[in-house]
Amino acid sequence: MIRVFIADDEEPARERLKELLSDIGEEVPNMVAGEAKNGIDALERLPASGAQVLLLDIRMPGMDGLELARHLTGLEQAPAVVFITAHDKHALEAFELNALDYLLKPVRASRLATALKKAASAGAPRREQLARAAGGPREYLSVAERHRIVLVPVRDIVFLRAEQKYVTVRTKEREHLIEESLVALEKEFCGTDATNGFVRIHRNCLVARAAIRGFERTGGSEEEAHWQVVLDGVPERLPVSRRQWPAVRELIAERP
Amino acid sequence: MASIRQSAYPDLLPDFRNMAVMARVLVAVNALALFGAFYTASNIAQGVERFVQAAAFVEPLLSVQLLAFFLLSPLLARLSYRSSWTTVVALAVAISGAYHVMVASIATVPVPALGRTLVLVALGTLFLLGYFRLHTKAFSPALAEARLQALQARIRPHFLFNSLNAVLSLIRRDPKRAERALEDLSDLFRTLMADVRQFVRLEEEIELLERYADIEQLRLGERLRISWELDAAPADALLPPMVLQPLLENAVYHGVEPGTGPGEVLVRIERRGERVRATIENPHLEAGNQRAGNRMALENIRERLALFFDAEASIATQTANGRYRVDIEIPYRRA
After folding, report:
1. Is B164 within 8 Å of A13 when comparing Cβ atoms?
2. Within this chain, do residues B132 and B220 fall inside the same structural domain, yes or no?
3. I want to staple B325 with a disulfide (CB 3.0 to 4.6 A). Which of A146, A148, B38, B281 is the partner?
4. What is the pLDDT of residues A123-158, one digit of tens each?
5. B219, B221, B260 member nearest A61 (Cβ)
6. Do the chains contact at B259 and A61, CB–CB below 8 Å?
7. Domain ends where: B76, B110, B139?
8. Sequence-separated contacts (24+) of A235-238 with Cβ below 8 Å
9. pTM
C-alpha cells in the first residue's frame, strides 16, 4: 500500500487526483495519507503523515512546489515526489534535464499508475537535483526535526556562520543549526541583488548585506588594520578577514 | 452571441469626429501654409509676415470646415466611398467660396482672387483625403489585419488546462455543473477565435467576463471574490472584442492565484458623458509580480485600442494602498 500525499491549491484538482487514485487502486494499491492546499500547509502536515509519495503541484501560493520539495529532502523519511503542472515550459525543461518525474494536468489514470510505481521504487529526489531544477535561491532555509520542518525566511537572516559540522543561522530573534555547507550556501545566496544578497566576510561567515550597519577598527597598524562588522539587531561583532576586506569594502561602497 | 457587422475600419474616409484626425488636419494645413509663405518669400521676415497673413485668413476657415464635417460626419458615412470623396471636396470648395466672398466684402486689405482660393482648397482637400487614405491603409486592411491577428488575445494555456482539469473533477460529482462549465469554456473560445476586426457590444463583453469568472470560481472557489459594478455600463457601447477579459484574467492570475488567502477583484464599467470607462482592480501581491506576462497583455490591449480608436482611447495603471488597478477609457460609440 503506497501512502500518497496530495498538494494542490485548487480543490477540484485535489478531488480529481483522489478519484484517479481510487480508480487505479487495484493496479497500484494506495491510500491518501493527507492533503494540503499550499506549500507551507504541506510542509506542516506531510512529515507526520508518513507519506511515501507526494503528488505536488509546482505552482502554489505561499511556496512553490520546487522549493517545498527542497525543504522536504531534510526529512529522515523524505517522500518521493511526482511534480504536476498544467503548463510550465521552463519547469518541464528543468525536470527533464534533472531526471525528475512529472505529470501533466489533466492527469491520466494510466500515467498516474506508472508514476506511482516508479516513485515508490526510486525514492526521494536528491537535494542537488532539485536545486539545479529550481535554478534560483530559496526563500527559506529549513531545519528538519524528527516530525517537523522549521522554516527560516532568508530575508530575516543576519548572518550564516560555519561551525564544525553545521552552519549557524542567526536571525534577530534566535539561532538555528542547519546541515548544509557554507560553500553551497554562498553559491546560492551571494551575488544575487544588492539588497537581499549575502557577502562573505571571512572564511567561515556570510553576512546579509542589508544588515551591515558599519565597521569598527579593532587594532593592527595603520596599513594592516583589523576590522569587524557591526550588524543591525544583533550584538555580535564579526571579524572581517584581511583577505576579504577589500572586496567587502567595495561592495558596501556600492550600496545605494 | 450576435456579432455586430460594423467593421473596425468603416471605410477609407477619415473619422471627422476623431480628435486625432482633426489635429492632423490642423497641423497639415498650417504646415502647407508655412511652406507656401516661405516658398514665395524672398527673406525670413517676409516669410513670417506672409504666413501670419495667410493664417489670419486660413484659421477661421479651417475651424468652420472642421465643424461642418464634424456635424455632417454621419451623413457622409452613409455615402459610397467614391461619392463621399466628391462630396467632401465639393463641400470644402463651397464653404471656402462663401467664406471668401464674405471676407472680401468686409476686408480692408486686398484679398487674393476667388479662383485661386478655390483651387488651393480643392487641391488641399484632395491631398488631405489622400493622406488619410494612406494613413488608414497603413494601419488597416492587410497590414493592420496581420497586426491584429498577431495581437489576438490569447488565453493562457495554464488557464485552459487547469479549467479542463476542474471540469473533469466535476463530471462524476456534479454532471450538471460540468456541462455548464464546458458551455462557458466553449463561449470563451468561440469569442477568442472570432473575427478580431469586428466591434462587439459591451453587453457581450460583459457576458463573456461573467462566463470567464464562473470558470475561475469553479477552480478557485472561496479564494476568488469578484464585485461587479455594472449598473452604469452602457449595454450598447461598441468596443473591440477581448479587451476586458484579458484584464480580468490578469487580475486573477497576478492578484488572486498567488495569494494564500481570499482575494477581492473589482470590475466597474460606467459611462461618463461621451466616454466609457472600465476599471479592474485586484490585490497587489509581491508574489504576483514575479509572474511574467502582465505587461505583455497590457501592451497588446493598448495597441489594439490604438488601432481601433487612435488617440481617443487610453489605458492607465496604478498601484496604491496594496491594490493594483487598470483603467481603460474609450469613446462611447453606440451600436
Report:
1. no
2. no
3. B281
4. 899 988 998 888 888 999 998 777 788 999 998 999
5. B260
6. yes
7. B139
8. A236/A159, A236/A170, A238/A159, A238/A161, A238/A201, A238/A202, A238/A205, A238/A207
9. 0.73
